[in-house]
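Q: Could you fold this chain for me?
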Amino acid sequence: MQQVEHQTKRQLTVLQDGAPLAVRPSFAQQEEIDTFDEFVQRFRRKQISEQEFQRFRLQHGVYGQRQQGEQMFRIKIPWGGLTAEQLDVLADLAQRTPRKIGHVTTRQNIQFHFLKLAEAPEFMQALEKVGITTREACGNTVRNVTAGACSGVCPSEVFDVTPYAEAVARYLLRNPINQNLPRKFKIAFSGCPDDEGITAIHDIGGRAVLHQDNGVSHRGFKVMVAGGLGPVPHQAQLLEEFTPADELLATVGAIVRVFDRFGNRENRSRARMKFVMAEFGLEKFRAQVFKERTSLKVTMGGKIPPIVVREEGPPSRDRSLNRTPDLLDPAYQLWRRSNVRPQKQPGYVMVTVRLELGDFTPLQLRVLAFCAREFGDGTVRITNQQNFLLRWIPDGALAALYRVLGRVDLARSGGDRLIDVTACPGADTCQLGITSSRGLAVAIARMIEEKHPDLANEVGGRIKISGCPNSCGQHHIATIGFYGGSRKFGGRQAPTYQMLLGGQWGDGSARHGKPTLRVPSKNIPGAIDRILDTYKAHRSSSETLQAFLDRFGFDQVAALLAGFTELPTYDEAPDGFQDWGEEEVFQVKTGAGECAV
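A: Sure. Below is the predicted structure, expressed as structure tokens.
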């Protein structure tokens, strides 16, 4: 019997040429911007307390940096989707920042740094004109709802999770249940077996599944709950094998309400939902959620909105003029092998645009917008690996696209490969940062380029760095992960990192790396060099770095690197007592982070 997909309470629309983004309602509200501006003025007149304003400021995406008087401005990009028009506006804003740099995060957000508080309303105003908001990008709220960047075009996906991620984002945005949670809350979706959304490390993870009933295929989600990284990582646990798509919003709302009711408001270090799960156990937690869902469906009734399903279709504009002969240039061929993947739609490919440290310049963003219009469907996706993804690129247009991207240093090979090191902002701007994770990431990438170019584009191995134990750089799920700290050598403090080995994710699960040894920051490139030399000398045919480390043994790696754990005296080698990019002797300088305010 022919299988038919059941459409219940879902409006189905097929849209082309960026329309899924272009026609959707705005996430921003003008009156909200006016209110923020008013609060800024009242705060300056000392009519409201600093604590009251801080909570309000964070709820609107403005986060204090470690530098006095400087603000980080976080822009919420649901499921990472941006139009070319939005990219142009973001490029204009990046041009107005002191360093003329923007940054993409592992949560598919955009961040600008070193802004003054007075500038925030103007930035919000510019974003409002293209439908973007900063609301609930920080604070004790549900943060950005993320999704695998390949959603909608992935050859192995069950179905496109994008409209469901968007529906959840809209349902929770400004929702009263989401304004004063015990702590931040994170949600992610994946539609493919590779789990590009990394659902297992989130408070709620939804993986697309189909349920067959008498030849009819029903959409739904395998819902995982209470995952998280941070100093105490937890694997997400299974709430429900199949949550019908029609019940997704009620289920998400119920989970958020359970967290709001039972989350620890006394001890902020134990306020995440993973600790509610640890206290309750899975069965009690599950029972509370199902009870809350039943209550929510009865009390809310028709107030839970239907999910509008927009299915992607090929761009309608003729791209035949973009077709150019393929290039024989080895650099192009390497880029094509590492950064280009086929879509499920024949004749089209998706292209990873690798950013160093997730940073972009205004010119790069404008060129990316041009490429989205000229070669693709007028949109891009931010990935949770701090890159951009261009989609709907005709296979025959790749050579022309490569030339354009290359003019602004956006044609780097190695997207999502070994050389594509992930790093949080660390001590550069974050009040909680202990070490310069960004500086270390650059040093590691340079070492790989110089000494192991043959491994730079390897799959099956990722390096991720956090400047403190909080895992914003996702170090727990890296093949080789690091988080920053310090240690005294000869009575002097030096920056160090805890090395973790063997982390990975995929197929809806995550394995956390094993803490192996603590290494001074300046010794880390040499330590990784030793690991990669050993890997090349002893790997079996086609064995990935991940598989090799599992076979070789983490204790063996620790023994191999024993000589890298110490430093000479300060008089012999003062460089070891400085952090990357710093000339002063290292000292731990952390502040009161605003993540838990």
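A (continued): The longest helix spans residues 282-300.
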